[in-house]
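User: Could you check the structure of this?
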Amino acid sequence: MSNITEIERIALANTKKGVISISNVTEPYGAGSGDVTSIGISLTGKEPEWKVHIPTENIDAVIAALQKAK
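Assistant: Sure, the predicted structure tokens are below.
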């Protein structure tokens, strides 16, 4: 059974109520599946309309790529 721990909510630029939510998810795809970090985007501040799951092992590479994009 997966367990979701919210890490942070960030105001989504250029929206009135939008948020970016960052959460850690253990066993997201069932028992024994690897942990992921979930990044969700919500335009309403409620449930995310878009989500991406990044395996924990890929976080450093994704951060480096995001720094390049910045």
